[in-house]
Specification:
Layout lengths: L21 H4 L27 E5 L23 H11 L3 E5 L9 H10 L3 E5 L7 H10 L1 E7 L8 H18 L2 E5 L2 H11 L6 E3 L13 H13 L2 E5 L3 H4 L8 H10 L4 E3 L13 H11 L3 H15 L3
Parallel strand pairs: 1-2, 2-3, 3-4, 4-5, 5-6, 6-7, 7-8
Helix pairs in contact: 6-7
Length: 316
């Protein structure tokens, strides 16, 4: 395993960190904390590029209007759109992407309503059933949707061949709409899919830096293969939710992994806050943004990750 020191160049690779997944997939729902006052958020420590985009956040609404799935993994977060719009001003963010949370399953009404309120500064990533009709998909597109999120945690017990067939069908659908695919997946599923994903011709994004955890049996060699997929395939990686990888180790422990991703293919990397940081909405979203300034000191690279890449991927 690699040491936890920060990598100085692309030849030095990071360790993978032990963290069991029960924290986010517990049978007893996690209790979502109250939202932090946006005025206490850290401000950007670097000059933000024009049209900076948060490419991964979630929006939630009242339970009497938007029903959750039968067995949610967490209680309703305090993730109101109005609060997030205030947060954008403090962090100098100009665009954002709403990713459908597992809390609502394939009922995308809360996200679509938020897209209608936000207008052209927002894009959406839906979760859908395979039988979703063309009229619904067209209405999603008109509302600003540009991707489908595949919850591969929910399908992780299936044979790899069945997961591949599912991805093939959904990638074909997304290509027909001019959309891309996003994977919410455990790292060991990503590892098993890498040979298959190398031949996928539709753009796809893997959340949370690939979610490769040593606790799940992953190795630095697996992460190297993920970096190769990023460089040579249709793969994009999302710098998001570092706390889901490092947890108690601190954000510095994630730096080698994030730096290696940025160095491998900065033109195919996007940044996301993962707001409202389920279940801990007391987290400092500004601190998470400032990690990007630590992972790369090149303003041109930061502009790619925050502005140019999401504009290209989400059709702004």
């Amino acid at each position: 395993m690699f040491s936890l020191r920060r990598c100085a160049n692309a030849r030095t690779r990071p360790a993978l960190f032990k963290l069991p997944y029960f924290q986010t997939m517990a049978e007893t729902p996690l209790i979502s904390t109250p939202m932090r006052d946006f005025e206490t958020l850290s401000r950007p420590s670097f000059t933000m590029p024009p049209l900076a985009c948060d490419a991964h956040m979630h929006v939630f609404g009242p339970l009497d209007k938007y029903r959750h799935v039968e067995h949610p993994h967490y209680t309703l977060p305090d993730g109101k759109l109005a609060y997030y719009l205030q947060l954008m001003g403090r962090l100098q963010l100009k665009r954002f992407v709403i990713v459908q949370p597992s809390f609502y399953g394939t009922d995308n009404r809360c996200m679509i309503d938020a897209l209608h309120v936000a207008g052209s500064i927002a894009r959406g990533v839906v979760m859908i059933d395979e039988g979703t009709d063309a009229a619904t998909l067209d209405s999603y597109h008109a509302s600003g949707v540009r991707a489908v999120r595949l919850d591969l945690f929910a399908r992780s017990g299936l044979p790899t061949a069945e997961i591949q067939q599912y991805i093939t069908r959904m990638a074909r659908l997304c290509a027909s709409l001019g959309w891309h695919v996003q994977f919410y997946a455990p790292g060991w599923v990503v590892r098993n899919l890498i040979p298959f994903l190398a031949d996928v011709q539709t753009d796809f994004v893997i959340d949370h830096m690939g979610y490769m955890l040593e606790e799940d049996g992953l190795t630095p060699a697996d992460f190297e293969r993920l970096l190769s997929l990023l460089k040579d395939g249709q793969c994009w990686l999302k710098l998001s939710a570092p706390y889901r990888i490092a947890k108690h180790r601190g954000y510095e422990a994630v730096a080698p992994m994030a730096e290696a991703i940025v160095q491998a293919a900065p033109h195919k990397v996007i940044w996301g806050s993962d707001w409202p940081h389920i279940p801990d909405s007391t987290r400092d979203t500004g601190e998470l943004l400032n990690l990007l300034g630590a992972w790369t000191d090149d303003p041109a690279v930061r502009k790619m990750i925050l502005s140019d890449n999401p504009a290209r991927l989400f059709d702004y």
